[in-house]
Write a structure and sequence with these properties.
273 residues, globular, 6-stranded mixed beta sheet, alpha/beta, 8 helices, 4-stranded mixed beta sheet
């Protein structure tokens, strides 16, 4: 990691192995003009493409490797990073193994957000990392399988009792860090969002507070934590739903599409040294 990393960026506080490195940018330190000021990393939001290129180059210098930018569509596809994988690959999560990292000149799993939840994952052996873009659609998924389940390696992804026993006995443990997202005091949703989560996990009702007829305040980070726990990932760090993690409530630090409508994107990155 380059020493030029701005002090304002987030460095995950979690017990990851030393070879696992991670960062989460903020909106500061870049070259975009308002309303994308200043470190907008998204090419699809109407910003000057030249400014975005400079911002992405700044991020690459800070990481000391290439951040691979995906075309995120609020789906449940996860792709494995390789040197040949181009920016713009359609997926909402990506993973990198130690073997693949050794064969490349340096890649970083990268997720862009502006209210959705970035989830970074690694195993305790330091041989696998991943990043997932968890908006409510991707997190809910279909029939209980969303972006969390799609990103986790086997046997976590199966969620079967015997598989979970294998996790405890043989496989390295997976830990997670959740970055900033829209907070439970700001994320108003309709009945259909609540129903999508409750259908697969009845206890998801705990993470929706009534907010008028047919409206609810959803706790996105708590819903993600619930899905991670259900999949066998019990050690989850970072976003606890408190106001300091809310993108909407911190306009000087984080982009927020819900707050501003026209907004840039910040990024969460994870890689293997």
């Amino acid at each position: 990691m380059n020493n030029s990393v701005p002090n304002d960026w987030l460095r995950p506080d979690w017990p990851a192995p030393s070879q696992v490195r991670a960062l989460c940018t903020t909106r500061g330190g870049g070259y975009s003009a308002a309303p994308y000021d200043s470190l907008n990393l998204g090419t699809h939001v109407g910003d000057d493409p030249a400014a975005v290129r400079v911002n992405r180059a700044l991020l690459q210098r800070a990481l000391g490797r290439r951040p691979v930018f995906l075309d995120q569509v609020h789906g449940t596809d996860c792709v494995a990073l390789t040197a040949q994988l181009p920016d713009g690959t359609r997926a909402d999560a990506c993973s990198l193994t130690a073997d693949a990292a050794a064969e490349t000149s340096g890649l970083a799993c990268t997720i862009m957000v502006a209210d959705c939840l970035p989830v970074l994952l690694c195993d305790t052996a330091g041989t696998w990392v991943a990043a997932a873009h968890a908006g409510w659609r991707g997190l809910a998924g279909s029939q209980g399988r969303g972006i969390v389940e799609a990103t986790l390696p086997t046997p976590y992804a199966s969620k079967q009792p015997l598989a979970l026993m294998a996790i405890a006995q043989e496989a390295p443990e997976i830990i997670a860090w959740m970055g900033p997202c829209i907070g439970p005091q700001a994320f108003e949703v309709g009945d259909e969002v609540r129903a999508a989560f409750v259908a697969a996990h009845p206890q998801a009702t705990l993470h929706f507070a009534p907010h008028g007829p047919g409206k609810w305040l959803a706790n996105l980070s708590a819903l993600a934590r619930q899905r991670l726990h259900a999949a066998g990932v019990s050690r989850v760090y970072g976003n606890d739903g408190s106001p300091e993690w809310c993108t909407v409530g911190q306009p000087s630090r984080f982009f927020s599409h819900r707050r501003d409508r026209v907004s840039g994107r910040f990024a969460a990155c994870i890689w293997l040294d």
